[in-house]
Specification:
Distance between the termini: 29 Å
Largest sheet: 5 strands, antiparallel
Strand content: 15-25%
Order of helices and strands: HHEEEEE
Helix content: 40-55%
Strand order of the largest sheet: 3-2-1-4-5
Shape: elongated
Number of strands: 5
Number of domains: 2
Radius of gyration: 19 Å
Number of helices: 2
């Protein structure tokens, strides 16, 4: 679970840094200190990035903290279709799941029984089925 909480802290820090940068750029806009006209749009672009970051990563992980602390998980069975470049996420039957790459080493085509969180799809336990 340490990997989950470190990941949560990292994504929360990224979201907070983007919000602070957006506020800083808004102040520059308000004081009319931009040197180039196109930079007036930067806060709106940052707002979009913050929303995507928060909706895709930070908020689901925050919602899952209570489930992890209580030990409430869901169980699914499926076949691994794809493993991401950083080896910390995989696609199982069309759904994306995140896992600790130091503990789990799945390969494409494995039939897995996974135990994961509801919102972020973080895998706490993974076992091969069949064979």
């Amino acid at each position: 679970m340490l990997y989950f909480f470190l990941n949560l802290i990292a994504h929360t820090a990224i979201s907070a840094a983007l919000v602070l940068l957006m506020i800083y750029r808004l102040r520059i806009n308000q004081e009319r200190r931009n040197r180039r006209g196109i930079l007036y749009l930067l806060p709106f672009i940052l707002m979009g990035i913050v929303l995507v970051q928060a909706i895709a990563f930070t908020i689901p992980r925050l919602l899952d903290t209570t489930d992890i602390l209580r030990g409430v998980y869901i169980t699914k069975i499926g076949s691994v279709e794809k493993i991401d470049f950083l080896n910390n996420a995989m696609t199982v039957d069309g759904e994306r799941y995140f896992y600790n790459p130091f503990l789990h080493k799945p390969t494409v085509g494995d039939e897995l029984n996974i135990t994961c969180t509801r919102y972020s799809g973080y895998i706490t336990d993974m076992e091969k089925t069949g064979e």
